[in-house]
Design goal:
There is one protein chain. This protein has one domain. It starts with a helix and ends in a 17-residue tail after the last helix. The longest helix is centred in the middle third of the chain and has 20 residues. Helices cover 66% and strands 0% of the residues. It is built from 13 helices and no strands. It binds 2-acetamido-2-deoxy-beta-D-glucopyranose (3 copies). The site of one 2-acetamido-2-deoxy-beta-D-glucopyranose has 6 residues, from helix 11. One 2-acetamido-2-deoxy-beta-D-glucopyranose binds next to helix 11.
Length: 232
């Protein structure tokens, strides 16, 4: 009885999250990576030494070891998430760290934050690599376009991913996403999240935030998708 109860608890416990929690299979991560393959010959190369240096600077704020890298993406995702969920003051500091990291990488930022580039390095782990790029894409969505919204509604936006309404959108994504309808599934999930965040937190800005935090991870694999701001 007791173990059944704790099993049920385990199954329903979900944590507060500004960066949306979900996972993709290795097959889908690989598909995304091919879709992110840079086509431009002038694409800036991600320089290993600069990449490591900037990462180590970023890590210091979070108390992560200098050697922690994109290969530890799931650990970085969780560590950044924990800071975002402390309070708004810490969230603002994380955004400042993100700006410094972005400036540190300069012209190579987007080639370093690219699934195709990273997965072509020796022996990558797919979910670590995916968690790595979506951490920084999520921070971009939150700290650039979504900043005033997240500061105003930090509590509601952070708690929302613990609800069934959030989980329904994600489960639906999980069940529908496939190689032959990848971007339509992303688009549909963005709409689902838009409506769900709107209903829970109120105001068109919350819906846009929920949609955009999801969509931005797929910005390079699904060109041209947009989140709409509802007008009443
Ligand atoms: C989505 O489905 C995959 C298996 O297809 C599973 O490993 C993963 O945990 C699921 N993610 C969520 C958030 O349910
Ligand atoms: C980071 O990843 C490397 C390579 O997979 C591993 O050896 C190391 O233990 C990881 N560090 C942490 C803190 O998880
Ligand atoms: C925010 O959280 C940090 C870490 O828990 C704490 O040290 C700080 O006092 C908190 N700040 C505010 C304004 O609550």
């Amino acid at each position: 009885m007791r173990s059944l109860l704790s099993l049920l608890l385990l199954a329903t416990v979900a944590h507060s999250a500004i960066l949306q929690p979900y996972s993709l299979t290795d097959d889908l991560i690989q598909l995304m990576s091919f879709r992110e393959q840079p086509s431009n010959a002038a694409f800036t190369v991600c320089q290993d030494i600069q990449f490591q240096y900037c990462q180590a600077q970023f890590n210091q704020f979070f108390g992560m070891d200098d050697m922690v890298s994109w290969r530890n993406g799931s650990y970085i995702f969780q560590t950044v998430q924990n800071y975002l969920m402390m309070n708004v003051t810490e969230l603002v500091k994380v955004c400042n760290q993100r700006t410094q990291f972005y400036q540190c990488l300069g012209a190579s930022y987007y080639s370093c934050m690219n699934l195709y580039t990273l997965l072509n390095k020796p022996q990558p782990d797919f979910s670590d690599t995916f968690d790595y790029v979506r951490t920084f894409r999520g921070l971009e969505g939150m700290c650039v376009g979504g900043f005033s919204e997240v500061v105003a509604q930090w509590d509601c936006l952070g708690t929302f991913p613990t609800t069934n309404a959030y989980q329904n959108c994600i489960n639906n994504f999980n069940q529908t996403v496939a190689a032959n309808n990848f971007c339509p599934a992303v688009q549909q999930t963005g709409v689902c999240l838009n409506d769900a965040y709107n209903a829970a937190c109120g105001g068109p800005a919350a819906g846009y935030f929920g949609c955009e935090m999801f969509r931005i991870t797929f910005d390079n694999s699904c060109w041209g998708l947009r989140c709409m701001v509802d007008t009443y």
